[in-house]
Amino acid sequence: MMDNTIAVLEQVLLKAISKDAVEEWIERYAIPFKELMAYYKCAIMRVETKFKVLNENFSLMSDSNPIENIESRLKSPKSIVDKMIRYNIPFTVDSIEKNLHDVAGVRVTCSYLSNIYELEEAFLNQDDVTLIQRKDYIENPKPNGYRSLHLIISVPIFLQKEKKEMMVELQLRTLAMDTWASFEHKIRYKKQNGRITDGVSAELLECANLCTELDKKMEHIESIAHL
User: Partners of 174 in the beta sheet?
Assistant: First the structure.
């Protein structure tokens, strides 16, 4: 695993800096980088556990499970280095932790739109969770139709001899939002440069609007079913 990480880092870094600089970077930061990625994995596990506990609690209180699925991902070394190059971020492990807030990511897919905000409130009310940034792309969708609630949060992880705060990016969305985002990603990245025609963009935006109406309709059906 460590050999693979080093190989990827060397390949990517060579595009931006000299081979000697790459070798010096690997010698200095390979182990700290591996440790940092392990810390992010611990933070992901902590956040996932919190949402699983909340899901069980909601089930006990209201006989419903608001969470349909929980997924997580750790940014690849190539993606990390690409972003550091793009934003001119210093090539140090400390710089990764300080400047990149989306290295660790957790996506929570909910049954209904209202579940998103209920879970957000319950999660942020926990005394060891700190909100760093909030972007509501549900109330304010992106121009292409993308909708999701994004939160950058900090949670503590407890190591052998210390407690460490780690940042995690959260995405909360409905099944309809998640289906649209997955479809749009596949369509866009079939193109080498990520660009699609105006006609396809318009069709995708129409689909996003239909997903919005679907979410509202499903929420309405759920509400009258429990009257």
Answer: 110
CATH number at residue 176: 3.30.460.10
Per-residue confidence (pLDDT) for residue 50, from 0 to 100: 97
Greatest Cα-to-Cα distance within the chain, rounded to the nearest angstrom: 70
For the chain, the distance separating the N- and C-terminal CA atoms, rounded to the nearest angstrom, is 54
Tell me the C-alpha distance between 178 and 135, whole Å: 17
Matching residue, tokens 């996932």: 48
Joined together, the tokens standing for residue 4 give: 């693979």
Q: Which domain holds residue 93?
A: 2-225
Considering its fold, how many domains does the chain have in total? 1
Residue of 125, 121, 223, 212 whose CA lies nearest to 174? 212
Cα–Cα separations (whole angstroms), residue 172 to 73, 117, 128, 148, 185: 14, 9, 19, 6, 17
Backbone dihedral region of 98: left (phi > 0), alpha (psi from -120 to 50 degrees) or beta? alpha
Contact call for residues 81 and 33 (beta carbons, < 8 A): no
- Phi and psi for 110 in degrees, rounded to 5? -110, 160
E strands, the chain, where? 67-74, 104-110, 130-136, 149-158, 163-174
pTM of the predicted model, to two decimals?
0.82
Query: Three-state SS across 175-215?
Result: HHHHHHHHHHHHHHCCCCCCCCCHHHHHHHHHHHHHHHHHH
Beta bridge partners of 104: 74
CB 81 within 8 A of CB 103: no
CA angle, 199 then 201 then 206, to 5°: 95
**Sites in the chain below the pLDDT cut of 50:** none
